[in-house]
């Protein structure tokens, strides 16, 4: 019995006691599990009508109810007039902790005339999109900005019970 100061020594390193085959299998299983766990995820958001469904819509024949039954409810309507229905959707893929990548993006616009009959059909893909840069300017306001202490001390005595 090995003991140091009356305590039994405990072997802390288990790897030398395991046979090399078992250790190799464990390493392979951990490697395979980590590869499977990092498989890319594909997500579809919105409504992307297929080409088959779009080909079923005939210009000058189908009405709003027909389009709704073929393509479903539109993602949004036109901002200033409800004669334009938009079907907006995109498919993305994401691998582990990396950013999402857009695989497919499509906007379908169905334009109706005043009688509610399909007048035009437009299909836009991600190549037709434009990048919009954000404006990071700050709008000035009247007055002055309160400091941290002014915000804390300014509320003393202003409690309504």
Describe the structure.
By secondary structure, the protein is an alpha+beta fold. It has a domain at 43-128: Beta-lactamase Inhibitory Protein, Chain:B, domain 1, CATH 3.30.1450. The chain is built from four helices and seven strands. It has helices at 20-37, 51-55, 64-71, 148-153, and strands spanning 3-4, 7-8, 41-46, 76-77, 84-94, 101-112, 118-125. Strands 3, 4, 5, 6 and 7 form a five-stranded antiparallel beta sheet that branches. A two-stranded antiparallel ribbon has the order 1-2. The radius of gyration is 32 Å and the shape is flat. It starts with a strand and ends in an 8-residue tail after the last helix. The model has no long low-confidence stretch (mean pLDDT 80).
Write a compact overview of the structure shown:
With 161 residues, the protein is of the alpha+beta class. It has helices at residues 20-37, 51-55, 64-71, 148-153, and strands at residues 3-4, 7-8, 41-46, 76-77, 84-94, 101-112, 118-125. The longest helix is centred in the N-terminal third of the chain and has 18 residues, at 20-37.
CATH fold node name of the domain at 43-128: Beta-lactamase Inhibitory Protein, Chain:B, domain 1
Tell me, briefly, the overall form.
flat
Please count the beta strands (DSSP E, at least 2 residues each). Answer: 7
> Main β-sheet: number of strands, strand sense, barrel status?
5 strands, antiparallel
Structural class, judged by helices and strands? Answer: alpha+beta
The N- to C-terminal Cα distance equals: 74 Å
Helicity level, as a percent range? Answer: 10-25%
- CATH class of the domain at 43-128, named Alpha Beta
User: What order do the SSEs take from the amino end to the carboxyl end, as H and E?
Assistant: EEHEHHEEEEH
Share of residues in strands: 25-35%
Q: How many alpha or pi helices?
A: 4
Radius of gyration: 32 Å
CATH A-level architecture of the domain at 43-128: 2-Layer Sandwich
- Mean pLDDT comes to 80
Low-confidence stretches: none
